[in-house]
C-alpha cells in the first residue's frame, strides 16, 4: 500500500508539473527533460510512468478535459429551474477557472492551435456534451421558459465569459493593477454574467436567490489562491 501511494503521489506530481509547463509553453516548447527536472526525478523515472511526451501530454490534456466537462452537466438537472441551472452552470465554470487556471490555459492553447495533439479526444467527448446542453436550452426556449436566442452562440459566449478569467488572467491583473485575481473578482464576474443572462433570456431572479454549487464554495476562499492562480 505504501508503494502504491508513493507511485500515485509521484504520478500526480509529474502531471501537475507537466500541466503547468504545457500551459505556459505549449506542446512543442516543453521537453521530457524539463518536466523531469521540475518534478525532481530522472528522465528515466518519468518515462517509466509515461513512455513518451505524447503519452504524458495526452494524459494531462484528457484529465483537464474530463474535469472541464464534469462542470457542464448543470443544465441537464431536471430538479432545477432555468435560472437556478444557469446560475450553477456559471458558478461552476468560474470555479474551474479559479481552481484550474493552468488547465484552462492548456485547453485553450490546444484549441487555438486547431487541436494538433488531441482532436479525436475533444470531438469524442465535447460534441456529446455540447449537444446535451443545447438540447436543454432548446427545450426551455420551445416551452417559453426563456427568450429565444441562437443556442450554439449562447453557449460559446458563456464559455468565453467564464474561461477568460483563467486564460487572460495576466491581462486582467495588469488592467486592474493587481498581483492576482481575488475571490471578489470572481464574485463580481458571476454577478455580471448572471445579470446579462437574465436580461438576454428574460429570466426573473428569485427573491431569495442562492447560488447552487454542488459542493463548491459559493466564493472561492481566499486561502486557496496560490501559485497556480498567479
Automatic annotation (TrEMBL):
Gene3D superfamilies linked: Homeodomain-like (1.10.10.60), Tetracycline Repressor, domain 2 (1.10.357.10)
Q: What are the boundaries of the signal sequence?
A: none
Q: Tell me the SUPFAM superfamilies matching this sequence.
A: Homeodomain-like, Tetracyclin repressor-like, C-terminal domain
Q: Per the database record, which ranges form the HTH tetR-type domain? A: 8-68
User: Could you tell me what this protein is called?
Assistant: TetR/AcrR family transcriptional regulator
Keyword DNA-binding among UniProt keywords: yes
Q: Name one GO biological process term.
A: negative regulation of DNA-templated transcription
Q: Provide this UniProt record's keywords sorted from A to Z.
A: DNA-binding
**DNA-binding region(s) from the entry:** 31-50
One Pfam match: TetR_C_3
Please tell me the species this chain comes from: Variovorax boronicumulans
Instruction: List GO molecular-function terms, semicolon-separated.
Output: DNA binding
Entry coiled-coil feature ranges: none
Amino acid at each position: 500500500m505504501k508503494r502504491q501511494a508513493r507511485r500515485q503521489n509521484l504520478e500526480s506530481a509529474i502531471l501537475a508539473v507537466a500541466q503547468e509547463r504545457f500551459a505556459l509553453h505549449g506542446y512543442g516548447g516543453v521537453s521530457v527533460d524539463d518536466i523531469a527536472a521540475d518534478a525532481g526525478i530522472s528522465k528515466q523515472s518519468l518515462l517509466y510512468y509515461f513512455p513518451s511526451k505524447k503519452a504524458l501530454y495526452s494524459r494531462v490534456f484528457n484529465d483537464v478535459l474530463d474535469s472541464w466537462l464534469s462542470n457542464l452537466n448543470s443544465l441537464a438537472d431536471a430538479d432545477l429551474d432555468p435560472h437556478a441551472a444557469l446560475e450553477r452552470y456559471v458558478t461552476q465554470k468560474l470555479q474551474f477557472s479559479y481552481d484550474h487556471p493552468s488547465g484552462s490555459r492548456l485547453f485553450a492553447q490546444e484549441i487555438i492551435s486547431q487541436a494538433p495533439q488531441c482532436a479525436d479526444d475533444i470531438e469524442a467527448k465535447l460534441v456529446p456534451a455540447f449537444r446535451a446542453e443545447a438540447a436543454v436550452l432548446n427545450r426551455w426556449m420551445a416551452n417559453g421558459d426563456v427568450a429565444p436566442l441562437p443556442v450554439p452562440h449562447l453557449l460559446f459566449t458563456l464559455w468565453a465569459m467564464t474561461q477568460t478569467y483563467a486564460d487572460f488572467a495576466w491581462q486582467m491583473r495588469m488592467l486592474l493593477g493587481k498581483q492576482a485575481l481575488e475571490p471578489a473578482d470572481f464574485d463580481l464576474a458571476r454577478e455580471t454574467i448572471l445579470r446579462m443572462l437574465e436580461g438576454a433570456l428574460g429570466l426573473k431572479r428569485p427573491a431569495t436567490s442562492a447560488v447552487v454549487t454542488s459542493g463548491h464554495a459559493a466564493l472561492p476562499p481566499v486561502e486557496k489562491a496560490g501559485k497556480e492562480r498567479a
